[in-house]
């Protein structure tokens, strides 16, 4: 007996699904031609990386590599595909209201032209992030290793590319870009966050930075850090309001720390220890850490031994 599903069973399943597509649910939309394509957006991100790091991510389909020609071909290709995606995304934009197809075509062209004018600014910021990563990580053997291998720099670069589209009020696409980086690196940075120069993410996995977070210059954060909202129970009523913290310049946030709330401000030059939970502001030049933890050992004869861990400088920085 074959394990393959029979044709009549397939027909039955298809009829069942079609009957359920009654147009009453938001997920019933059938037109696939008027929505941004995740796969296309991911390709655009990868092609933009060639403009940010032209000597590292080249198009291997060309046997001969000429920088000027390569950039020209890449820009034309990105512009064409990005405009198509932006044009479709503008259908979803509440701020612009209803737009005709002609209006969307003109606006998408304008957005892409302005966007490409911002790329030198983006590259300048990525350069500061690269140098911050090298200066802040003794494990980095060279700048090239950071560009090719560090997930934190990838996540930050994609965020900076997406943020410019977010500022241009392009819906959906900036989030698709940062969620691509999220899936690749484990770092979730909302494109609406405001992040200053020399931003260094070490290790990266599990980091979350919310939409209205404001992060100053020379900030360094480790894996598992959340810069998030204190509560989202208000749902859409909270849209547009500041829900996430402000982090001052020269702040270091160690692994597992959670900093929450739109009114929470971490003052400049502060150090936030690992596994801390902060929901109120911290003055500048402050060091925040957990109380000394206590380890408990159980010996083979079931005798319990407790040992207080001294909160040394080394322990503080490693947690």
Q: Helix amount, in percent? A: 40-55%
Low-confidence stretches: 312-319
Structural class, judged by helices and strands? alpha/beta
> How many strands, what sense, and barrel or not for the largest sheet?
5 strands, parallel
Instruction: Write the element-wise H/E pattern from the N-terminal end onward.
Output: HHHHHHHHEEEEEEEEEEEEEEEEH
**Alpha carbon gyration radius:** 24 Å
Q: Please, how many helices?
A: 9
Q: Give the total of beta strands.
A: 16
Quote the beta fraction.
5-15%
Mean pLDDT: 87
Shape: globular
What is the distance, rounded to the nearest whole angstrom, between the alpha carbons of the first and last residues? 58 Å
Kindly report the spatial arrangement of strands forming the biggest sheet.
1-4-7-10-13
Structure characterization notes:
This protein has 319 residues and is of the alpha/beta class. 41% of the residues lie in helices and 13% in strands. It contains nine helices and 16 strands. The strands form four sheets. The protein has a five-stranded parallel sheet with strand order 1-4-7-10-13. Strand 15 and strand 16 (304-308) form a beta hairpin. Helix 2 (38-52) packs across helix 8 (173-185), helix 3 (67-89) packs antiparallel against helix 4 (101-117) and helix 7 (151-167) runs antiparallel to helix 8 (173-185). It is globular. The model is unreliable at 312-319 (pLDDT under 50).
């Amino acid at each position: 007996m074959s394990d393959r599903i029979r044709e009549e069973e397939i027909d039955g399943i298809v009829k069942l699904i079609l009957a359920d597509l009654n147009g009453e649910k938001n997920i019933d939309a059938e037109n696939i031609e008027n929505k941004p394509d995740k796969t296309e957006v991911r390709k655009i991100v990868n092609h933009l990386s060639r403009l940010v790091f032209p000597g590292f991510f080249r198009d291997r389909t060309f046997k001969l590599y000429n920088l000027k020609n390569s950039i020209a071909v890449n820009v034309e290709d990105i512009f064409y595909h990005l405009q198509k995606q932006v044009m479709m995304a503008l259908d979803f934009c509440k701020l612009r209201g209803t737009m005709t197809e002609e209006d969307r075509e003109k606006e998408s062209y304008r957005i892409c032209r302005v966007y490409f004018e911002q790329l030198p600014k983006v590259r300048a910021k990525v350069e500061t992030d690269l140098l911050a990563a090298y200066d802040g990580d003794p494990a980095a053997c060279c700048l090239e290793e950071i560009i090719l291998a560090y997930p934190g720099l990838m996540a930050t670069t994609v965020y900076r590319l997406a943020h410019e589209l977010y500022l241009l009020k392009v819906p959906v696409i900036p989030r698709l870009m940062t969620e691509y980086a999220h899936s690749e690196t484990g770092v979730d940075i909302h494109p609406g966050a405001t992040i200053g120069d020399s931003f260094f993410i070490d290790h990266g996995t599990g980091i979350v930075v919310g939409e209205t977070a404001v992060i100053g210059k020379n900030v360094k954060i480790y894996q598992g850090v959340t810069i998030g909202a204190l509560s989202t129970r208000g749902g859409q009523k909270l849209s547009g309001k500041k829900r996430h913290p402000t982090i001052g310049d020269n702040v270091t946030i160690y692994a597992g720390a959670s900093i929450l709330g739109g009114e929470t401000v971490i003052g400049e030059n502060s150090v936030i220890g690992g596994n801390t939970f902060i929901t109120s502001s911290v003055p500048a030049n402050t060091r925040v850490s957990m109380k000394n933890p206590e380890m408990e050992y159980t010996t083979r004869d079931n005798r319990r031994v407790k040992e207080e861990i001294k909160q040394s400088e080394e322990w503080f920085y490693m947690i």
